[in-house]
Amino acid sequence: MKNQVLCVAVLLTGLSGCADSGPVRMDLTSESTYEASLTAMQSSLSREEQANLMVALLRIRMSGIGSAEDAQVSVGEGLVLSAEKMTRIDGLTYSEILDMASQSDVKTEMLK
Q1: What letter would DSSP give residue 89?
Q2: Which terminus of the chain is more exposed, N or C, with fewer CB under 10 A?
Q3: DSSP H helical ranges for 1-112
Q4: Does residue 111 belong to any structural domain of this protein?
Q5: Domain count, the chain
Q6: pTM (whole model) above 0.70
Q7: Domain with 31 in it
Q8: What is the pLDDT of residues 63-87, one digit of tens each?
């Protein structure tokens, strides 16, 4: 009887690892985890959703830049500014990233 209970416990533990772990979340622990989570997120999306994700990330990165002069200052500050803004997406899902981007002051339009 103990062996049967042990076998069932091991089987359930193994199957729990196969269960859907939910939507992919961005991981900004390091550059490599960011790249891996971005790749995983993109692979779970349609082509249209992938394009929406990239536009959303751009909007988040560019938020707060109000003029060409501001853009020059931002470019001069380089990756520090971008990294600071991008840490806001750490742990977010695709839907949450789109929501954040929709609140950005950056406006985008698709070209026809």
Answers
A1: G
A2: C
A3: 2-16, 31-43, 47-62, 68-77, 79-86, 94-102
A4: no
A5: 1
A6: no
A7: 21-102
A8: 766 655 555 555 444 434 355 667 8
